[in-house]
Amino acid sequence: MRSIKLRRSVLAVLTAAATALPMMMTAGTSWAADSEITPDHPGGVAAPHSPDGVPSNGTGPQFHTWPMASQYSHSHLGANPKGANDFTCKPAPGSRPVVLIPGTGEDAFATWSYYAPELKLAGLCVFTFNYNIQTNPDREWAATAGDIRSSAAFLAHYVDKVRAATGAEKVDLVGHSQGGGPLPRAYIKWYGGDRVVNHLIGLVPSNKGTSVYGLATFAGLDRPGSLGAQALQSYADKHNYESLPQQLAGSQFLSELNDGGMTAPGVRYTVISTKYDDVVTPYTNAFIRQPGVTNITMQSVCAKDHTDHFGFTYDPVAFQVVFNALLPDKAKAIHCVYVPGYIQ
């Protein structure tokens, strides 16, 4: 368990620190949707055990903590979360398919082994995917790593696949970290998601990026040409980890994504965060301050909830909030229980 916590601590620091790179690009570099990136040709790196994005290396058990699920995903590459990706599932009247989007450097199983079976049990058609993995060496469990535009274009392809199988006109999206913020919003803005997304629920999303607790400026990561900036750029280029630099607060990618507003007409938005977030800092960078957006801090719902960034998708109280947002007709009073943080 100690080694798992250590890896999580390292990943948290790396995820936050490496998000500095867009600030290091030349002024002429544009992060807006690339005409060469399309849903049919997204340009990212496929996960070998997830053909066309579908985790296909057996079905794993439901876990109730992130460290256990993450450990399992490392030794069972491409494991499918229980209850997910049944392409024969047809949504009940009044409901829509739910697509679960992993966060940066996480695969579908590590992120969603708890949520998928719970949502399936609630009668929903649940889907999730793996794409754009870390390279050199290939690490399938570190998915959603590459250029966010490529991941967003692939999400467009995957949603079309889900809609074709289920017959649904629209879907609901639930995403963690990058998967709850920049990735689905890029899909909505640049790849047609505004026409088919009913509701985006973002869990600790990096909507406005991270300040790395102010360390980006302290270490010179936001100064073009600095040694730190060059080292980070080299790391991202070598390992297909461009999504990390794209998520630094003030990055050119986020500036272009957020230009003109962070929402699209006709799409509902719910953002749920925690004041104990140790990756998206300050935690308020998750929130979208625009009309029609519901922003929720977990501690305003349950003061005993100390969940952090990585543990968020294993927080039973947060799950209740998500359940109520997805199924308002079946909404229940929140049962507040003590939830410890995983990194303190």
From TrEMBL:
InterPro entries xrefs: AB_hydrolase_fold (IPR029058), Lipase_EstA/Esterase_EstB (IPR002918), Stereospecific_Lipase (IPR053228)
Gene Ontology molecular function terms on file: hydrolase activity
Chain spans, region Disordered: 33-65
Biological-process GO terms, alphabetical: lipid catabolic process
Polar residues bias (residue ranges): 56-65
Taxonomic superkingdom: Bacteria
Keywords: Signal
Keyword Signal listed: yes
Residues of the signal peptide: 1-32
Keyword Transferase: no
Protein's UniProt name: Triacylglycerol lipase
